[in-house]
Amino acid sequence: MTTLLDARTSQNASIANSISIPIPIPILSAPGLFGQVGLNVLGTTGPIRTQLSRTVACQLPLLPVATTITLTVVRGTSLTDPVIYSSAEALNINLLGPQLFTFTASDFNVPPPASELLIYTPFISSNVLGTVRVGPEI
Q1: What is the pLDDT of residues 62-71, one digit of tens each?
Q2: Averaged confidence pLDDT in the chain
Q3: Is 35:137 a contact under the CB 8 Å cutoff?
Q4: Spatial separation of the C-alpha atoms in residues 93 and 63, rounded to whole Å
Q5: Is the pLDDT of residue 5 over 70?
């Protein structure tokens, strides 16, 4: 029998064009963190399964060029922690407005952490300087 232990949300920007945060490119700096959620797994006796859904809106640089957004989700707080999702997505150079990227990631058979808090962190990077996150981010 399945037991729901916890359900939480991490929301950085509620509406479109509510933020303007540059997306880092890996050769210049580390990928940017764009959310984090910690699940309370107090009392868990067996393996844990989680499902995460995220949405991030990105916009091309001022001069539209072929741009790739890389999204990575880790179980933990740093890029050296186990990766549970990674994807490279191309922005459509014919659309000058915000473009939404929505994904769902799952993590199966996770052992209960000693801290009783299971943390997931998404990171984002771009291959072109000037690409921005514009919201929403849920």
Answers
A1: 888 999 999 9
A2: 90
A3: yes
A4: 10
A5: no
Residue in the structure block whose two tokens are 């014919």: 94
- CA distance from start to end of the chain: 30
55 near 101, Cβ under 8 Å?
Answer: yes
What mean pLDDT do residues 104-126 have?
A: 92
> What single letter denotes the amino acid at residue 66?
A
Backbone angles phi, psi at 24, to 5 degrees: -70, 155
Classify domain 21-137 by CATH number: 2.60.40
Distance CA 19, CA 55 (A): 14
Instruction: Give the length of the chain.
Output: 138
User: What are the extents of the domains in the chain?
Assistant: 21-137
Tokens representing 81?
């922690």
